[in-house]
C-alpha cells in the first residue's frame, strides 16, 4: 500500500473545499493514499481585494449577486499548488439545491460571459478556449460550482460576478439564509481587515404587511430600512465585532396560531403571451407549543439494493434510527427493507413504545444491509394495505420511500398512487397516506420521486453525495414529523373556467410544523379582495380562514418578483409532470420558459464563452432581450470556443442500467475534477418525454400545473387534492396525456 506523503498527512481538511467564492490554484490528490477512497482537490486561494454580496430573500427563495475581486500572485500561479496550469479556478461553495444563472469575469484584455442555451444548440461547443475538447457539460459537484479561468495574467486584478438562487432552509421556526463569507487562510491581503473586504446587503420580503423580523448573530448588522412587508439590513463596517465566519441570517415565522397571507401583482404589460396576474399564498405553521399535533402512522420503506453498499446504507440507517426516535407514544410504525425482495418488521402497524422501538433498532441492524436489485411498487402497495388494515383513529398515515435506484415501472408507480389518492380514504382512515420521498445519488430518477411525493401530498428531498445522506434524510423527517393541517384547500370566489387558474405545487401540500406552505399561481383578471383557506386540524375539526389579498403594485424597487421566486419549482414540476405523461409536445415550452428567465433545465445548459471586451455591452444587451441567443457569433473562437457548464448537479431522470448493475449511486470522485481543465466527460441527460399543453395553451406559462387540478367555477371554487374532487376533475394524470382537460371544481359547502 502506498503511503501518504508527510505534507498530506498534516494537511488541513478545510483546503479540500472552497470556503468563499473566489479564485483558487488547484492541485489534484489522487486516490492512492491510505484513508482516501476517491480523488480530492486542494484549493489554494489567490488574494482577495473585495467580496460583496447583494442578497434578496423573497418569501422562501434567496436571490444572490456576488461581486468579488481577486489578484493572483505570480508565485502562486507558477507554484506546484497550481500544477503548472496557466489558469485558475473560480469556485463557489453553495447549497446542493442552488442554481447558478450567470457567471462573468473581466481582465484587461479578456472578458468571459455566460448564457443559457438550448441543448440542441450545444453540439458544436467544445470549450477549446477553456482547455476542453467536447460538448459534454463539465462534471459538477452538488456543493461547489467551478469554472476554469484561462490565461490569468500574474498580479492582475480579476473582477468576477456570479448570480444564483437557492431555497431558504427552514429550521426551528425560521427561514435561514447562509452566505459563504469565510475567507480561507492566506486570502486576506497583508494589513487588510475583514471589514475592509467583505460587504453584505440583505433585503427580506415577506407576504405579510408588517416589517419582516430578522436575526443575525454571525455579523454585526445595521438597519437600512423597514416598511410594510420588507426589512433591509447591511453588515456594519464601523463595528469591531467581526469574525471570519459564514454570514447567517434567520427570519422567524412561528406564531401562536396558523397564519396565512396572499399577495398578487398586476397582469404584465406590453407584448406578452401570458396576461394573467401572478399571486402567492403563504401559510405559516404555529409554534409547536401552541398546537395539538396529529398522531402518526409511519411506514419506512428503505432501499437495501446492492448499490446502497457502504455510506449510503449507513446514512439511511442513521436517519431511520432518528426517525424512530422522533415517534411519540401516540404513534404507530412499521419498516420494510426492500431490494427485489421485501422484509417487514411486522405484518401490522406497531405501537411506538420504547420496547418496540428498541426491538426495531435491532431489526434494522440485521435486515437493512445492501443486497439485490430494486422493486419499489410492491412494498409501496403493501404499506398502503397495512396502513389501511387497522387504522389508528385520527392519525395521519405517512410513508417514507428511500431509494438510490431507478426502476422501469416508475410511471406505473405514480399512477397507482394517483388511484390511491383519488379514491375515498379507506374506512377508519381520516385521510389518504402521505408519501415523502428521498433520493440518493445520481442514478435515481429525481423527477419521478418529486412527482410521487407531489401526488402523495408529502415532501421530497435528496442527497447527491454519500456524506449528506444521513443529515439530509434526518432533515426531511424532522420537517414532516409534525403535521398540523391536512387536506388544505384554497377557495377563490368568482373564479371560473375563463380565469385560467394555474397553481403550483399541486395538489396543495399539508402544513407541517417544519414546512410552511407556499403556493404560487396565475389567474386571469386577478384575485378577489379576499379568499378562503381551509383544512383539517388534529382534533378532526375543520379550520378555515378568510385571507385578504394584498396588492403588490410594483411601485417599489423592493417588490417581490413573483415570477422569479417560484420559477425553479415551476420548471421542475412541469418537467416531472411531462415526464410522467410521456408526451413530448411541451418540450419547446419548457425550453422557452428556461430561456426567458435564464434558469437552466434538462433541455438547456449554462454556457461560458470568451468575448472581445469591446463587444461586452453588445452581449449584455442581447441577453436582456431573452429567448434564444446565438452566442457563437460573439464568442472568441466561435462555437468551438464555447464551454458547456454543468449547472444542474443532481437533477436527472435516472439510470436503470446503472441501478441494475449495482453501480454506486453517489457522486464518486467528482471532487477531483473541479479545478482541472482536462475534465472527463460529464453525465449525459437522456432525451425525455415532456408535455401536456400542446394546442390547449400555446403559451409558455399555461401548461401542466393548471391542467392537473380542478379549475374553478364562477360561484367560488377550491383547489385542493385530487382525491377531494375525484370523479369530477382531471383525476388520473394519464387522462391528461390523452388531451382530456376538464374544467370542474370542488366547492366549499
3D structure, described in words:
The protein is α+β, with helices and mostly antiparallel strands and 749 residues long. Helix content is 19%, strand content 30%. The chain has a 10-stranded mixed sheet. Strands 16, 17, 25, 26, 27, 28, 29, 30 and 33 form a 9-stranded mixed sheet that branches. Strands 18, 19, 20, 21, 22, 23 and 24 form a 7-stranded mixed sheet that branches. Strand 19 and strand 20 form a beta hairpin. Helix 4 runs antiparallel to helix 5, helix 4 runs parallel beside helix 9 and helix 6 runs parallel beside helix 7. The N terminus and C terminus are likely disordered.
Overall 3D geometry?
globular
Strand proportion, as a percent range, falls in: 25-35%
Total beta strands: 33
Class by SSE composition:
alpha+beta
Poorly predicted runs:
1-10, 654-749
Amino acid at each position: 500500500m502506498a503511503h501518504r506523503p508527510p505534507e498530506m498527512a498534516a494537511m488541513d481538511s478545510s483546503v479540500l473545499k472552497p470556503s468563499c467564492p473566489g479564485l483558487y490554484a488547484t492541485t489534484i490528490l489522487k486516490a492512492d493514499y491510505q484513508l482516501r477512497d476517491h480523488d480530492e482537490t486542494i484549493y489554494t486561494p489567490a488574494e482577495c481585494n473585495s467580496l460583496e454580496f447583494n442578497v434578496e430573500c423573497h418569501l422562501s427563495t434567496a436571490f444572490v449577486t456576488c461581486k468579488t475581486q481577486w489578484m493572483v500572485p505570480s508565485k502562486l500561479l507558477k507554484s506546484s499548488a497550481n500544477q503548472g496550469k496557466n489558469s485558475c479556478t473560480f469556485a463557489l461553495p453553495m447549497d446542493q439545491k442552488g442554481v447558478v444563472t450567470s457567471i462573468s469575469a473581466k481582465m484587461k484584455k479578456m472578458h468571459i460571459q455566460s448564457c443559457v442555451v438550448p441543448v440542441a444548440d450545444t453540439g458544436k461547443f467544445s470549450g477549446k478556449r477553456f482547455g476542453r475538447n467536447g460538448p459534454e457539460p463539465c462534471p459538477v459537484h452538488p456543493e461547489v460550482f467551478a469554472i476554469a479561468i484561462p490565461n490569468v495574467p500574474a498580479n492582475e486584478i480579476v473582477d468576477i460576478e456570479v448570480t444564483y438562487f437557492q431555497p431558504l432552509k427552514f429550521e426551528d421556526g425560521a427561514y435561514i439564509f447562509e452566505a459563504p463569507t469565510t475567507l480561507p487562510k492566506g486570502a486576506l491581503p497583508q494589513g487588510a481587515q475583514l471589514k475592509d473586504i467583505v460587504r453584505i446587503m440583505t433585503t427580506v420580503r415577506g407576504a405579510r404587511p408588517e416589517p419582516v423580523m430578522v436575526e443575525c448573530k454571525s455579523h454585526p448588522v445595521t438597519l437600512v430600512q423597514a416598511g410594510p412587508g420588507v426589512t433591509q439590513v447591511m453588515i456594519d463596517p464601523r463595528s469591531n465585532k467581526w469574525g471570519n465566519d459564514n454570514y447567517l441570517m434567520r427570519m422567524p415565522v412561528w406564531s401562536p396560531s396558523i397564519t396565512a397571507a396572499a399577495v398578487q401583482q398586476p397582469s404584465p404589460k406590453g407584448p406578452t403571451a401570458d396576461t394573467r396576474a401572478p399571486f402567492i399564498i403563504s401559510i405559516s405553521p404555529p409554534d409547536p407549543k401552541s398546537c395539538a399535533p396529529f398522531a402518526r402512522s409511519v411506514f419506512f420503506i428503505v432501499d437495501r439494493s446492492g448499490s446502497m453498499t457502504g455510506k449510503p446504507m449507513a446514512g439511511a440507517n442513521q436517519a431511520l434510527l432518528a426517525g424512530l426516535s422522533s415517534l411519540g407514544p401516540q404513534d404507530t410504525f412499521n419498516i420494510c427493507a426492500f431490494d427485489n425482495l421485501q422484509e417487514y418488521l411486522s405484518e401490522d402497524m406497531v405501537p411506538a413504545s420504547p420496547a418496540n422501538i428498541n426491538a426495531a433498532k435491532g431489526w434494522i441492524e440485521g435486515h437493512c444491509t445492501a443486497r439485490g436489485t430494486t422493486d419499489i411498487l410492491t412494498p409501496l402497495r403493501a404499506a398502503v394495505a397495512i396502513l389501511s388494515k387497522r387504522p389508528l383513529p385520527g392519525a395521519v398515515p405517512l410513508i417514507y420511500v428511500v431509494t438510490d435506484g431507478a426502476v422501469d415501472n416508475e410511471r406505473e408507480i405514480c399512477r397507482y398512487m394517483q388511484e390511491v389518492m383519488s379514491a375515498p380514504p379507506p374506512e377508519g382512515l381520516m385521510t389518504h397516506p402521505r408519501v415523502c420521498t428521498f433520493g440518493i445519488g445520481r442514478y435515481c430518477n429525481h423527477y419521478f420521486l418529486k412527482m410521487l411525493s407531489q401526488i402523495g401530498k408529502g415532501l421530497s428531498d435528496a442527497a447527491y453525495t454519500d456524506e449528506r445522506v444521513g443529515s439530509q434524510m434526518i432533515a426531511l423527517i424532522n420537517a414532516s414529523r409534525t403535521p398540523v393541517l391536512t387536506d388544505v384547500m384554497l377557495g377563490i370566489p368568482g373564479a371560473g373556467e375563463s380565469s385560467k387558474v394555474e397553481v403550483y405545487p399541486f395538489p396543495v401540500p399539508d402544513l407541517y410544523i417544519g414546512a410552511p406552505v407556499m403556493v404560487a399561481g396565475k389567474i386571469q383578471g386577478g384575485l378577489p379582495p379576499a379568499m378562503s383557506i381551509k383544512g383539517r386540524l388534529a382534533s378532526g375539526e375543520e379550520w378555515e380562514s378568510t385571507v385578504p389579498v394584498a396588492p403588490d403594485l410594483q411601485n417599489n424597487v423592493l417588490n417581490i418578483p413573483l415570477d422569479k421566486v417560484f420559477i425553479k419549482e415551476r420548471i421542475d414540476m412541469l418537467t416531472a409532470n411531462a415526464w410522467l405523461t410521456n408526451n413530448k409536445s411541451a418540450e419547446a415550452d419548457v425550453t422557452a420558459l428556461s430561456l426567458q428567465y435564464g434558469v437552466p433545465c434538462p433541455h438547456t445548459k449554462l454556457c461560458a464563452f470568451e468575448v472581445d471586451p469591446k463587444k461586452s455591452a453588445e452581449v449584455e444587451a442581447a441577453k436582456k432581450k431573452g429567448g434564444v441567443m446565438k452566442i457563437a457569433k460573439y464568442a472568441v473562437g466561435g462555437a468551438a470556443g464555447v464551454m458547456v457548464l454543468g449547472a444542474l448537479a443532481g437533477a436527472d431522470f435516472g439510470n436503470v442500467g446503472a441501478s441494475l448493475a449495482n453501480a454506486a449511486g453517489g457522486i464518486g470522485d467528482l471532487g477531483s475534477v473541479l479545478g482541472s481543465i482536462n475534465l472527463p466527460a460529464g453525465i449525459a441527460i437522456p432525451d425525455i418525454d415532456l408535455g401536456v399543453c400542446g394546442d390547449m395553451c400555446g403559451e409558455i406559462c399555461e401548461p401542466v400545473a393548471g391542467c392537473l387540478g380542478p379549475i374553478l367555477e364562477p360561484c367560488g371554487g377550491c383547489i385542493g387534492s385530487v382525491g377531494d374532487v375525484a370523479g369530477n376533475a382531471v383525476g388520473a394524470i394519464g387522462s391528461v396525456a390523452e388531451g382530456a382537460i376538464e374544467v370542474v371544481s370542488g366547492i366549499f359547502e
